[in-house]
Amino acid sequence: MIDVRFIPTNIKDYQAIVVIDVLRATTTMVTAISNGAQFLVPVETVEQARSYKQDGFLLCGERGGVKPEDFDLGNSPLEYTKDVVENKKLVITTTNGTKALAKAREHSKNIILGAFVNFSKTLEYIKKFNDILFVCSGNDGEESFEDTQVAGAFIEKLVSFRKYELSDSALISLNFWKSIKRPTFTGKHSRVLKTYGFEDDIIFSQQLDIFNTVAIYDADKVIKGE
Ligand code: MLT
């Protein structure tokens, strides 16, 4: 069975859940892991993130798209270069993405981060599961044009390997993706990010397979999956 939530509500138990916040939280976390961060702890609030400072963590994330003043890094994947994150412990809080991860965590032992930048490696990892739920993080309770593309792209590949039962939301995602065929980030959040000057993040996040890693949320940490 393959199912999709366009926003992170009504999540049920699944063998595997792929959480998608392609602009920008999951792309950013995948980038951090791919560039050698030890792990990231996703938390829901800015205050929770601050409590990690004394343990030598880099404080990461955003509110309203921008870095809280006392944080080390914002939510731009371009900031998470090797020289900045290698061997570091990170704590991250974002408006939608880290909240969606927290919700997913209650419903599966296998939580995977979905993005385009490591698409093929993630596909390789998730194809062993029979029951997969894609959870789009959305934007403050609204559906995301971009997250839904990632779900549809995964479903297109998964159904080419074998037969899955598809929910209506999975069918909608699949047919939507087939109608556009390639990452096309022109939704509301893309437009908002552009006004903040984050156009390069949009370009970065649309890239396919620049990383050969999979990022999983295991216990309380995002780490590299094997
Ligand atoms: C989020 O988690 O809401 C997003 O990643 C927001 C952003 O683009 O910074």
TrEMBL record:
The EC designation for this entry is: 3.1.3.71
* Chemical reaction(s) catalysed: (2R)-O-phospho-3-sulfolactate + H2O = (2R)-3-sulfolactate + phosphate
Superkingdom of this entry's organism? Bacteria
Quote the SUPFAM superfamilies the UniProt record gives: ComB-like
GO-annotated molecular function: 2-phosphosulfolactate phosphatase activity; magnesium ion binding; sulfopyruvate decarboxylase activity
Q: Which InterPro entries does the UniProt record give?
A: ComB-like, ComB-like_sf
Keywords from the named record: Hydrolase, Magnesium
Q: Does the keyword Magnesium apply?
A: yes
Question: Which cofactors does the annotated protein need, by name?
Answer: Mg(2+)
Pfam families according to UniProt:
2-ph_phosp
What family does the database annotate?
Belongs to the ComB family.
Task: Quote the protein name from its UniProt record.
Answer: Probable 2-phosphosulfolactate phosphatase
Species this chain originates from: Thermosipho japonicus
- Phylogenetic lineage: Bacteria, Thermotogati, Thermotogota, Thermotogae, Thermotogales
